Amino acid sequence: MNNNNVNFRVFPGGNLQGVARVPGDKSISHRSIMLGSIAEGVTHITGFLDAEDCLATLNAFRAMGVEIEGPKQGEVIVHGVGLHGLKAPNEPLYLGNSGTSMRLLSGLLAGQSFDTVLTGDPSLSRRPMKRVTEPLRQMGAVIKTSHNGTAPIRVRGSGPLESIHYDMPIASAQVKSCLLLAGLYADGETSVTEPAPTRDHTERMLEGFGYPLRREGNRISVCPNGKLIATDIDVPCDISSAAFFMVGAAIAEHSDVTLLHVGVNPTRTGVIEILRLMGANIEIINQQMVGGEQVADIRIRTSHLKGVQIPERLVPLAIDEFPVLFIAAACAVGETRLSGAGELRVKESDRIQVMADGLQSLGVHAIATPDGMVIQPRQIKGGKVDSHGDHRIAMAFAIAALRASGPIYINDCANVNTSFPSFVNIARSLGLNITVCAE
Ligand code: S3P
């Protein structure tokens, strides 16, 4: 479990220069363990994200009897047990800070023949779970949550589920993936339609494991009784981690950074599109397909950013990158407006309020709205920021120091280990003047 007494102290100014390889993609790493575990045969994973969130998923499958070797320098070997080979865990599955683990596992476990309990840390225990438990109940799953629809989630193993069609009210890859995984255990075809495109790693990886899937427009369908055949997975580097250095290089004078082997699946590249709308100088080099996912090197240099109205269609495609995009907006010329992003309020923290509060405490004019933010750039001052234990808030404010007039102190940063344990080392190697103080 995390303690919350790790703080960052980041000295102002400087620039970012060099070449870096950020760690593996978090979404793809979770799915590689889940699908590898229910596949037949041995799955070899390279580039796995060795961070707390993905280890929560890995440990959950170990607790359900799956033999998993590693992670060792990003290599993991999963000895798949097949769709019906998981075993009842001896105790509740503790999923830490990881919403992806909890929501995807709810679907996968609803179709098992044994009972499970899913728990998490205080942040995860506040996050909404009805978005998955309601459609799963429509499929006949027997699931209990706390009275306000949050974890712990108790899943009763009740045999085959009923297939449904679900018209998703929110654009969420976690809900979509949860229902597709439940659909593997249903009595007929399960389909979902999404109101806007969201990351499609589950669909791509199911196909990579040889599991048939139908995609027609915004509708995705799976049938039961297929099987997953073990395969090799090369996890690309996480564009959500790369985003911190993309923004850092764009806002700091004399910067030039190249990020290698980054996943540029078009359902994840909203951050590139938004930064380009703001005028950023970004080059995509060496683009290639690696195991069903697009991968490229991204070069980004100092840019004179301008404020924009962020198109709502890009919101789900950049959903995790808004904390650092708000920093870019604070350093631009002219106002930036974001709307249609109410989902940010139910992430690891309320990312609209927490970012607006942090920016204001550094002298930036940031007004939170119910579903977004209006930012009028100002000189970023030094000061103290509360990250509320949210990894992406902590890393975003560290990057802000590149354009600050005094040091920025960020508290409660231990959860950076949930997604990017090497953040401080890579940031330093590129030129950020950051120190870690453990109290
Ligand atoms: C994720 C989907 C997104 C994202 C999260 C990872 C996934 O959540 O914010 O960090 O791996 O499917 P939502 O589906 O809730 O938008």
TrEMBL record:
GO biological process: amino acid biosynthetic process; aromatic amino acid family biosynthetic process; chorismate biosynthetic process
Annotated CDD domains: EPSP_synthase (cd01556)
Catalytic activity: 3-phosphoshikimate + phosphoenolpyruvate = 5-O-(1-carboxyvinyl)-3-phosphoshikimate + phosphate
Top EC group: transferase
Protein name in UniProt: 3-phosphoshikimate 1-carboxyvinyltransferase
Compartments it resides in: Cytoplasm
Organism encoding this protein: Candidatus Methylumidiphilus alinenensis
List of residues binding 3-phosphoshikimate: 26-27, 31, 172, 174, 320, 347
Pfam families the UniProt entry points to: EPSP_synthase
Lineage top rank: taxon: Bacteria
Active-site residues (renumbered): 320
The Enolpyruvate transferase domain, residue ranges: 12-425
Keywords on record: Amino-acid biosynthesis, Aromatic amino acid biosynthesis, Cytoplasm, Transferase
Function: Catalyzes the transfer of the enolpyruvyl moiety of phosphoenolpyruvate (PEP) to the 5-hydroxyl of shikimate-3-phosphate (S3P) to produce enolpyruvyl shikimate-3-phosphate and inorganic phosphate.
This protein's GO CC annotations: cytoplasm
UniProt similarity note: Belongs to the EPSP synthase family.
InterPro entries noted in UniProt: Enolpyruvate_Tfrase_dom, Enolpyruvate_Tfrase_sf, EPSP_synthase, EPSP_synthase_CS, RNA3'P_cycl/enolpyr_Trfase_a/b
Pathway note: Metabolic intermediate biosynthesis; chorismate biosynthesis; chorismate from D-erythrose 4-phosphate and phosphoenolpyruvate: step 6/7
Binding partners and assembly: Monomer.
EC number of the protein: 2.5.1.19
GO molecular function: 3-phosphoshikimate 1-carboxyvinyltransferase activity
Main location: cytoplasm
Record: residues binding phosphoenolpyruvate: 26, 99, 127, 174, 351, 392
